[in-house]
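Title: Comparing notes on inverse folding

I've been comparing how different people in this forum approach sequence design from structure. To keep things fair, I'm posting one structure and asking everyone to reply with a full sequence. Here's the target:
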């Protein structure tokens, strides 16, 4: 406008030059105003740019984890709940990375952050046993690793819910990014005959973790748990022996049967190579949780991120617990059902059970190539 008014009057050449400069200057000012009002980002979104950069909305840590999957690791359209918006459109999704590392408790739901990223996948690794071995401790300790996400509750898919199908099973899993491992734990799998075959039918590459513990202590732990729910239960000895004087052990009692590790393992080895099964010592898990977790991380091909810095020994509980996470919250011990005071069993019965299990234990040590020293 200013340009038009100035040019409408005849002026000398030098004045015309000045007017041209004024004109160019006003054009430049108009352009700058336009840029300020309509930034490039807005324009890209309006024109439907398909690859918005996630990095704009994520703090440093999350950026690093997402780098491999940029452009944005959105779930495929079919994996997103209907009507769900793309992550960047929602304020709630712009959570700090610390929430990705939320520590689970006894039977936790999925950590709050990261909820809309990634997709639900069938597990790459399963803690298959053994009951009362320390399976919850292993899952809760490994899931503080940023590259691990786990189903909080036991799914019992391969033993009790197999008829529901793999898609049902997948639906129970947390969302994961491509770089993350999906895990679950159901301790009864180890002693269920059909399970190895069914897991191998899902994927022959599934990594298996078995937390083993002295079968005598394990049986007493198992009995203590049942007794806490059924107070009028017969005595441990009555259940454990068909004839205690003759030292005849009742192997049909589940608390005894579960501890025959060598027999159960034979069944797994029909479907999986030994190298695909990792054995955690339930005893060392208590005395050296960081050492056991280092081996679990190596087995899963993970960087050793969970270390002794994450644990402290809680004297009141008598077990290792997780330290307070960097961000907030309080130290985390497992729930009351983990680390109970055991029912007192007389020494003779314990000795008889030790004699009974010895040959099975020796066979188990030979099979796995490791002496767990249960004496
Ligand atoms: N850090 C820590 N805190 C608490 N408890 C721990 C821990 N590490 C291992 N354990 C041992 O875990 C035993 C329970 O095993 P599981 O989690 O496999 O039990 S269950 O099968 O899921 O019911 C539980 O057995 P009990 O002591 O007999 O209760 C514990 O000995």
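Reply #1:
Here's my take.
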């Amino acid at each position: 406008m200013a340009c038009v008014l100035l040019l409408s009057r005849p002026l000398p050449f030098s004045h015309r030059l000045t007017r041209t400069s004024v004109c160019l200057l006003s054009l430049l000012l108009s352009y700058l105003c336009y840029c300020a009002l309509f930034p490039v980002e807005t324009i890209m979104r309006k024109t439907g740019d398909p690859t918005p950069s996630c990095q704009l909305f994520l703090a440093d840590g999350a950026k690093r984890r997402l780098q491999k999957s940029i452009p944005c690791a959105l779930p495929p359209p079919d994996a997103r709940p209907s009507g769900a918006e793309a992550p960047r459109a929602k304020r709630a999704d712009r959570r700090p990375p610390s929430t990705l590392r939320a520590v689970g408790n006894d039977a936790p739901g999925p950590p709050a952050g990261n909820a809309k990223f990634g997709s639900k996948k069938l597990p790459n690794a399963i803690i298959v046993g053994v009951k009362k071995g320390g399976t919850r401790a292993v899952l809760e300790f490994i899931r503080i690793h940023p590259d691990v996400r786990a189903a909080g509750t036991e799914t019992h898919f391969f033993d009790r819910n197999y008829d529901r199908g793999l898609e049902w099973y997948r639906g129970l899993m947390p969302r994961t990014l491509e770089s993350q491992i999906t895990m679950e734990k159901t301790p009864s799998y180890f002693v269920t005959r059909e399970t190895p075959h069914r897991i191998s039918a899902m994927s022959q590459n599934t990594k298996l973790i078995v937390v083993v513990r002295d079968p005598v202590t394990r049986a007493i732990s198992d009995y203590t748990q049942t007794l806490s729910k059924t107070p009028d239960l017969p005595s441990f000895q009555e259940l454990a022996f068909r004839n205690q004087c003759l030292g005849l052990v009742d192997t049909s009692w589940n608390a005894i049967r579960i501890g025959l590790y060598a027999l159960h393992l034979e069944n797994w080895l029909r479907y999986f190579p030994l190298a695909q099964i990792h054995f955690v010592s339930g005893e060392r898990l208590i005395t050296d949780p960081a050492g056991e977790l280092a081996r679990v991380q190596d087995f899963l091909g993970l960087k050793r991120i969970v270390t002794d810095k994450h644990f402290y020994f809680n004297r009141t509980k008598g077990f290792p617990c997780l330290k307070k996470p960097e961000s907030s919250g309080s130290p985390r011990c497992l729930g009351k059902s983990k680390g109970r005071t055991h029912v007192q069993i007389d020494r003779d019965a314990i000795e008889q059970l030790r004699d009974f299990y010895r040959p099975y234990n020796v066979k188990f040590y030979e099979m796995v190539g490791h002496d767990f020293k249960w004496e």
